[in-house]
Every structure is written in C-alpha cells, then in structure tokens.
Write a structure and sequence with these properties.
Helix content of chain B is 75%, strand content 0%. Chain B is mostly helical and 161 residues long. Chain C has one domain (2-492). Classes of the chains: A alpha/beta (326), B mainly alpha (161), C mainly alpha (493). Chains in contact: A-B, A-C, B-C. At the B-C interface, α1, α2, α3, α4 and α5 of B face α8, α10, α18, α19 and α20 of C.
C-alpha cells in the first residue's frame, strides 16, 4: 500500500514538471526520439543518424534514432502519430511518405497531421545502361523505346514507390513506354543491370557513381534542370536540356506532429538549422554528393512543396492504378 | 484421433480461406506478369490442400491417439501450460499499456509461481535482476526503444530509460 | 612485397588488434542476443568509425561481421532461439545435441566450423576476387529461382518421418510468406488492411514462437516428470573435439565452406540462405547416425561453416564491383561511402592495402572467435543453472524482447505469441516447424524470381531453359529433390 502511495506521489511530481506552461523553458529535458521510417542501414537511415549526431551538439540532449521500418513507412508514421505532440518525437521524411498518402494507403493523413521542421537535402537520380549495352546516348534509347513500347526493362526498388514513380513519370514526360521491374535490394538491382537482365539502370547519384567509376555503367541522363558540376558527369545531358520536363529526385527532411507547442518547435528548428550550417554537415554532404542540387528549404517553403509534389504522385499513380479506393 | 481430425479441418478451412482470397486478387496491368499476384498462392494452396487430404485419410485409417496436455485441463500439467499461455497473452497485451518494466516484472513473478515454484525470495531477486538486465542491455546499451505504455506509465518510464 | 609488409603493419599493431577483438566480441554478444542482428551491431559501431582511418574502420566492421555471424549459434544451441537469421539451421541439430548433454561439444563444433569457414572464404577472396565477381553476375532471376528450389529440396530430408506432412508444412510456410505487399505489382495480399501485415511476417519472430516458446510450453508439461535441464554439470563450456575426430568429418567442413562462399558471392543472398542450403546438402544422407535432426554433428558443422564462409564471400562483389553480397555487406558498403571510399574496381587500385588488410582482419577475427565464444558461452552458462520454472520464464521473456527488437515493433511480439501456439500443436501432430520456416524464408526468393524472369522474358518462361547456368542450377535442384528416393532404390537393389 505504501509503495502505491509513493508511486502515485512520484508520478504526480513527474507529471507536474513535464506538463504546464514552462514546457519550452526547460525543453529538452530528456533525449529526443528521431523516428526513422526505414530499416537499418539504408541511405536515409544513415543520413538521419549522422545528422542527428550534429543536431545533438546544438540541442543539448541526445537524439536517439528509432527505426520503425514496417509496412513501407506506415509503421513509422503511425508511431510518430501515436506519440504526444511535445517535441520529443521527430520524424524523418522522404517522398515515400507523400506517396503513401497519394496512394491512400494509411489511415493517418501525413500532410494533415505533421508540421515541417526543415528540408535538408536533395538527391539527384541518373539513368544509365550497362557498359556492354548498345545504347550509346539517351536518343538511341528513346528511339528504340518509341519503336518498341514496353520492350525495355527498367529496374527499381519496391513496386509503387518512388523509383516506380520516377520510371513511369519520366516515360510519361518523354512520351515512351517501358516496363518497370521491382527488385528487393539495391545489390540485386545492380547485379541485374551488369548481368544484362535489365536494360536501364536508375539510381541515386552516389551509388550510381560507385558503379560508374569502375566503368561498368554508362550514364545517359541526369534528372535535373542542368548538368551536374562533377568532372565525370560533365558530358551527361540533363533531362530538361533534352526537352523532357521531369526532374524528380529524392529528398530528406524532418517533421514533428501537429500541435507541438510553438516555442518548442522554434528550439527544434533552430537546432536543426545550426546543424545544417555546421562544417561537419558540409563535409558529410560533400562526401555523399548531396550538395549538387539545392535541397535546403525552410519550414514554410517545405510545407508548400508537399502539395505540389503530392499532385504529381496522385496523377501518375492513378494512371498506374495504384491508388487504393476507399 | 478426434482432436487431430478437428485440427486438420481447421487447417483445411484456413487454406480454403486463403485460396478464396487468392482467387480474388486483382490481375495486373503488366501483361508480361503471367502469374500475377494470385498465381503462386493458388498453386501452393492447392498442393497444401491435396497433401492435407492425404494426411486426413491416413489419420482416419490408422486411428492413432495423440495426447495434448494443454487441452486436458483436468491434469496438473495441462492446467500449468494453459495458465502459462494465458499469462504470456496477458504479458503481451499489457506491454503497450503499462510499459515494459512493469509488465516484464509482473510476468517474471507470475510465471514461475504458476509452474508451482514457491520460493518468494528467489523469485523476487530473479525478477528484479532480470528486468534490470533487460532494460540496461536492450534499452540503454543497444538503444532499443522498449515499450513505454500509456500516459502515466509513459512518463514514469522516462525516469528509467 | 611492399604491400604485404604494409598490410601486416596496418593490421598487426596493438591498436588494430584491439579493434578486431572489440569487433568480434561486440558482434558475438549482439548475435547471441535474439533480435539484435549483425547489421544492427555494425550500425551501432558506425559513429565510432568517423574519426578512424579507413583501414581501421573497415577492420572493425569486418570483425564485427565475423563475430555476429558466429554468435547467433550460441543461443540456437542452448535456448533453441536463433540469435540471428544465419543461425536458423544450427537449431536443427544443435539443440537436440545440447539436450543430450552435449552442449559443450555442439558449441565447440559451431565455433570451430565458423572459424574454418571464415578462413576458407578469406583465402578465396584474396586469391580470386575479380574472377569470381564477374562469374557471380551470371546469377540472375532464373538462377535465383533454381537456388530457392535447391533450398526447398531440404524438406525431403528435414521433414523426417512423415513426408506428406513435411510437404504440407512447407506449403503453409510458403503461404505465410505471401502475406503482405506483393513485391512485383504492389497489391496487398492477405493483409486485411492491417498495417502490421503489410510488410509480411518476419520469420525470426515466427521462429522464436514456433521453436523457443513452443519448446517452453512442452517443457512446462514435462519438467516435473523428466529432466529437461541441459544435463551439464556446472557450466556450459566450449569443448573442442580432437583433431582426429574432426578430420573424419572433413567433407562437411569443405562442403559447407564451398557452398557458403559461393552463395556469399552471389549478390543479395547472404548467410541465412547459405546455411540452409548447406544443411540440406548434409541432410541428404538418410542413414547417418545419429539421424539429422537428432543431434548429428555434421548438421552443425555444415551450416556453421557456410554462414561464416558467406562473410568472406560477400566481400568479393562488395570490393570488386561495388555490389554488396549480403544484407550485412550492404551496411558495410554504406559505411565505405561515409568514410569517403567508393567500393568498386577503383578501390583496390587506389587502396592496394585494403584487400590484404580485410583478409588479415578476417583471419584474425576467425581465430579470436574461440576466445569470444568462450566468454559469451560462460555467461550463458550462469543462466542455464536456473531451475526450470525460472529458466523457462526467462527464455520467454528473452523471446519477447528479441521479437520486439527486430523492428521495434509490437506486431512481431504478437506474431511470436500466435506461432508459439501454432508451433506447439504442429509439434504434437508431427508437422514440421522447421519446414514451415524453410518455406517462409525461401518463398519470397522463389516466387519473386520466377515472376521476374517471366516478365523479363516478356511473358515466356523460356529463359529458365535457355540460360546455361539456370539449366545447371535447376538440374541440381531436381536431383536433390529426387536423391533420397533414388538412393533408396540403389540400396534395395
């Protein structure tokens, strides 16, 4: 009995310190959870973990990475939604979360329930072919695709994900048709390209470079509005220059649950901003080559960009029949 | 024998349900995907059903007896297992309500008791040490975000991990 | 010559040796704890590598990989709870052996075999990397399909007494494997709008349920009548077999290592599939004594050699092509990028020491497995002295935490609970839980690559018979299915 009274008293004190008007003043009192809606070891996971380490310096408390990779980001989304809106839970986001909403897959509507902190970086996507392939330029490839609809095979990760959108969105903008074949992991995909099973290879810049530097892959086009400022890629045309208006890439940013107290949000935004300006981040960005296309966006602009992208996803996935009817 | 037939019927119903679902899966828009989402499930479902029928025929012929203590609540052993299944269900159910520490501690105390182990001092030490080690190893050293429970329990858990 | 001296100096200095030891030990502890995978262990080490020079960082991670691959077997053998996906096959014979009071022997075999497999694959990696990596590229969807079938052919052996029940069990495993988002066209299958089911059912949580939890239920019924302890005197101690005894089983060591190295080199198929196939190749021998599944030492040697040989094997395409050979190698490759190295042909030209350093780290780590293994098992030894009501409770609690830690997901705990009951009844009615797991693990590879190959062939399956490697692999698959029957015929003659 005594123990119970003690526990109740203890709980009461804890509660009174945690809630109340003084939230912002002593925020953060304990480590902040950084929810990563992907499994361990992927590019987005490693980015978030590295960034969290820099933010820590400015926030004063550790950011603890929590991987909730289930159900194609839905589990992470639900987890962050289920936590209180007190600023102790930050969610990493990529286009995948918008795609999940565009496909109507989750009961929690992402854009309605979360507020942006900032967008940190963009990752540009390239298309290429195996070095042994007969297609020397993008025009070769497009000419063949026009003459033989659906004959070319392009790979990607996960059906109905970002890669699927990029493959089909590009084809739509270029007026061609090809077949998208989903693979389970990046390594299977790369092996399929080098082994000749796939005709077209798409990947994000840094992992594209790792295959290209060995001379195994020939780059054909950069999905961007101009050429990239990298010596190895200076001869590779951009999609816009080729009159194909499609520049979707991946990006990474952070959000908190709607209803997080303004002062708390301000502290978070400040810390994330300082981390962005930190030389350690600049170094990291350079190594991972995510500094070539502008990615950084302040909270307000970030919020606006969601709606525009959402429209794009909605259109393409409706055409593909991947939007779930409720 | 009766139990085994009931068991087989349950599995059979499960497989039938699976097959019904598989047949209803939408065909794909990709004409090259000949099998589609449903093709493979239908094949394995049918093989499973045929195999199950063969097994059931053999069971009926051979009339083996299988003892399942869990379903025989009159024996002490049966009751023990049954109670333990319930305890585990309770443990799992409470994890997300009262949080990892309390649920684990409660389970660690209750389960040995239900197995007829009556040494309160040993059990208390065992339960406390195990809970502490689990929280330290998984929760603190390896950063596993252990369940915290709801409301009051959630806030309490922040004091520990 | 210079390069050799440089690499020796890079690895054999006190600091690096310390890193190797830390890596092995940390990997082993993570591996032995259910739910914490080798990938997780490496991710946790990652922040410490930012300030190291590239060679030290890679050495640390590679030794952690070696330790993690071996560590999972300890809990497989002692608790029937595989600590990592790689250790699944080790439970089949390891746990029965431990029940017969030969836990120390089983552990000794596991560590020796892991060590042997690592060294074997390290040598292959050093000698033949570029050639093998190119050869690995002839492995495409059609060949993966054949590989999956070879894996499935184990059921004719591990299904033990009742073949029909084993087949039904495998089909049930395959059926469970189809739950979730279809990986070809994104349709939700058998998920009933449950987010918990969308990503499919994790086989480790099924395995913890059907193996560990079901075993505890069974022991609760029996512990008052029969002795369920592991019958070890005081402590579980690694007992190394005499060299002559091991030499008798040399063929299992070699088979396991070769299979593991090959499957490691093939992109995207790692230690878990390697160990299953190696187990299957051993278990073909039906009149082995003791029977497979009842504590045959070869049933431990082959999978253990195999999953650790996959460590060295998977480094081959990672280093030479920039294509990771296993899920863990993918994490190591991500770490390469963070350090600022680009894996691929250029790497070996720019960093000539790298390959040698990794080779030396693998060998050193392999030898340190004996030390690490001794330490970790002695910790487990304390636990095993508990009276059964406490031990059983502890195993279940460990299972709950383990299932939860896989993806920090409560759903996995539910799945574990459900399969604890399912496994219990399967056991009683002599269905095969091992076959269910086998189907669950291999189902995805089989269906996925079958359909992918058909798509690549524009709707035709001709690719399976026109590709030479595919024909070879499929023939092996068919032979392994039929072998048990054929060998019976020969004997009867």
């Amino acid at each position: 009995m005594k123990a119970r009274i003690f526990a109740a008293a203890l709980a009461a004190t804890v509660l009174s310190t945690l809630s109340g008007g003084a939230v912002a003043q002593n925020y953060p009192k304990r480590p902040v959870e950084m929810v990563i809606p992907f499994g361990v070891g992927g590019a987005s996971d490693i980015f978030a973990r590295q960034y969290a380490q820099i933010v820590e310096k400015y926030l004063g408390k550790p950011l603890v990475a929590v991987n909730k990779g289930g159900a194609g980001t839905i589990e992470g989304l639900l987890h962050a939604f289920g936590a209180p809106a007190d600023g102790y839970t930050v969610l990493e986001i990529t286009p995948s979360l918008l795609i999940v909403e565009a496909q109507n897959k989750s009961s929690v509507k992402f854009r309605k329930e979360f507020e942006p902190i900032m967008k940190v970086q963009s990752d540009v996507v390239l298309f290429g072919v195996s070095a042994k392939s007969n297609y020397k330029t993008l025009d070769d490839l497009l000419a063949f695709a026009k003459a033989n609809p659906k004959k070319l095979k392009i790979g990607g990760l996960s059906p109905g994900g970002l890669d699927d959108y990029i493959a089909n969105g590009f084809a739509r903008a270029a007026g061609i048709q090809w077949t998208y074949v989903p693979y389970k992991s990046g390594s299977e995909l790369k092996a399929a390209v080098l082994g000749g099973e796939l005709d077209v290879y798409q990947d994000k810049l840094i992992s594209f470079m790792s295959l290209m530097s060995g001379g195994d892959v020939r780059p054909l086009v950069v999905l961007n509005d101009k050429r990239l400022d990298v010596p190895a890629l200076k001869d590779v045309p951009s999609s816009v220059e080729k009159k194909i208006d499609f520049t979707q890439g991946s990006w990474r940013g952070f959000v908190v649950k709607k209803g997080t107290p303004e002062p708390v949000k301000k502290i978070l935004i400040e810390a994330f901003q300082k981390a962005y300006d930190d030389p350690a981040y600049k170094e990291m960005e350079k190594k991972e080559m995510t500094n070539l296309v502008p990615g950084y966006m302040k909270a307000d602009d970030f919020r606006k960009s969601w709606d525009a992208e959402f429209e794009g996803y909605s259109t393409v996935f409706k055409e593909l029949g991947l939007v779930k009817q409720k | 024998m009766a139990i085994e037939i009931i068991f087989n019927i349950l599995i059979g119903l499960g497989i039938l349900f699976y097959l019904v679902q598989a047949v209803q899966l939408p065909t794909t828009d990709n004409p090259a995907d000949v099998l589609g989402a449903g093709g493979f499930p239908i094949v394995i479902g049918i093989i499973a059903l045929v195999g199950l029928a063969m097994i059931t025929i053999r069971v009926v012929k051979e009339k083996h007896k299988v003892a399942i203590p869990m379903l025989n609540l009159r024996s002490i052993d049966g009751r023990m297992v049954f109670i333990n299944v319930l305890l585990l269900a309770g443990y799992v159910g409470l994890l997300d309500v009262i949080g990892f520490v309390l649920a684990t501690f409660a389970y660690l105390v209750a389960a040995p008791l239900s197995m007829g182990y009556r040494k309160p001092v040993v059990i208390t030490i065992f339960a406390s040490v195990t809970t502490a080690v689990m929280v330290i190893v998984f929760g603190i050293v390896f950063y596993v975000p252990l369940p915290r429970g709801v409301e009051l329990f959630r806030d309490l858990s922040y004091l520990i991990y | 010559m210079d390069i050799i001296i440089q690499s020796l100096a890079a690895v054999y200095n006190p600091m690096t040796l310390l890193l190797v030891s830390i890596g092995v030990l940390f990997g082993m502890v993570c591996g032995a704890l259910p739910g914490l995978s080798t990938s997780m262990a490496i991710i946790l080490l990652l922040p410490f590598t930012y300030s190291m020079d590239p060679i030290s960082a890679i050495v640390l991670m590679v030794s952690c990989y070696v330790g993690g691959s071996c560590g999972g077997s300890i809990s497989s053998i002692l608790l029937k709870t595989p600590g990592t996906p790689e250790a699944v096959a080790t439970t089949f014979d390891g746990y029965p052996m431990a029940q017969q009071g030969r836990a120390g022997e089983a552990l000794g075999l596991a560590v020796t075999a892991s060590s042997f497999g690592t060294i074997f694959s390290a040598i292959v990696m050093l000698v033949a990397s570029p050639v093998l990596a190119q050869a690995a590229l002839s492995f495409q969807s059609a060949e993966y399909f054949g590989l999956g079938l070879i894996g499935l052919s184990c059921i004719t052996s591990i299904g033990s007494k009742n073949q029909v029940k084993a087949v039904v069990s495998v089909m049930i495993g395959l059926m469970i494997g189809t739950i979730g988002i279809d990986s070809i066209n994104g349709v939700e299958r058998f998920a009933f709008e449950q987010p918990s089911l969308l990503n499919g059912i994790n086989y480790i949580s099924v395995m913890i349920g059907a193996f560990a939890v079901a075993e505890v239920y069974k022991n609760i019924e029996e512990y008052r009548h029969v002795d369920t302890s592991l019958r070890t005197e005081q402590k579980v101690k690694i007992k190394l077999m005499k060299f002559s005894e091991m030499a008798r089983m040399w063929s299992s060591f070699i088979r396991g290592s070769v299979i593991g190295t090959i499957i490691g080199i093939i992109p995207a198929a790692g230690g878990s599939i390697a160990s299953l196939i190696a187990y299957g190749s051993e278990a073909q021998n039906e009149n082995a004594k003791p029977k497979f599944g009842e504590g045959n030492p070869r049933g431990i040697i082959a999978p253990e050699c195999s999953h650790n040989a996959a460590v060295g094997g998977s480094m081959v395409p990672t280093l030479t092509l920039g294509i990771p050979g296993s899920p863990v190698a993918a994490v190591i490759m991500a770490a390469f990028l963070i350090i600022g190295l680009t894996p691929g042909p250029m790497l070996l030209r720019e960093q000539p020491i790298m390959l040698n350093a990794i080779f030396l780290a693998l060998i050193t780590a392999a030898l340190l497995l004996f030390v690490g293994g001794r330490f970790v098992t002695s910790q487990f030894g304390h636990i095993l002295k508990l009276p059964y009501p406490l031990l059983g409770t502890l195993i279940i609690t460990l299972g709950v935490v383990g299932a939860y830690s896989l993806k920090n997901s409560f759903y996995d705990v539910l799945i574990m609970f459900v399969f604890g009951l399912v496994g219990y009844f399967f056991d009683k009615f002599k269905y095969s839980n091992a076959a269910v797991i086998l189907g669950l693990i291999l189902g995805e590879i089989i269906e996925n690559s079958l359909r992918k190959q058909i798509i690549i062939g524009d709707g035709s399956g001709m690719g399976f018979v026109t590709r030479p490697v595919s024909v070879l692999v499929l023939t092996v698959a068919v032979l392994t299915f039929l072998w048990p029957m054929m060998s019976k015929k020969f004997r009867n003659r």
